[in-house]
């Protein structure tokens, strides 16, 4: 990932994090946002917590190669077939990262009440030190990284067209979340390109 490494690792230790603001310029990012918003099959997932079903606070969709099943919200998800725009984005991510991605998780945060809880993308099917390429479209939202061992925190504002790459041991040592906010927020789409290993 020479192009990315030249931008500098944002994380102080135990992982790699590269941010490429405005990877897609405004007009291109606008067009991707519209197409993804309209064309992806957005689903409301539910989670069984403390004895009852609760709606996951965002909409989600899973796309990829037929074999790339992924388990989230306690359920196995077979992938939907690539849409043309996801294929194009995937090719861009593969050339920047110098590796292939066989799947993508799409998240739609409808407003400031939608969020993602603190987690690491450390599932077995991603392998030990996964490279994950994350694209953001639409509203600016804060992504917060936490290193529980040292209590260190790192906040990154992700904007329309931004690319963020997580790599190295990041998922073993750091967790991340997209907090809710009281500020009025327009919708935001995030795509995380992943490589699922059998
Ligand atoms: O929306 C984001 O920027 C974070 C998404 C994320 O962490 C995930 O899909 O695992
Ligand atoms: Fe994540």
TrEMBL record:
GO molecular function, one term: dioxygenase activity
InterPro entries: AlkB-like (IPR027450), AlkB-like_sf (IPR037151), ALKBH3 (IPR032854), Oxoglu/Fe-dep_dioxygenase_dom (IPR005123)
Protein name: Alpha-ketoglutarate-dependent dioxygenase AlkB
Pfam families: 2OG-FeII_Oxy_2
Domain Fe2OG dioxygenase stretches: 100-197
Swiss-Prot/TrEMBL keywords: Dioxygenase, Oxidoreductase
Xref: Gene3D superfamilies: Alpha-ketoglutarate-dependent dioxygenase AlkB-like
Domain of life: Bacteria
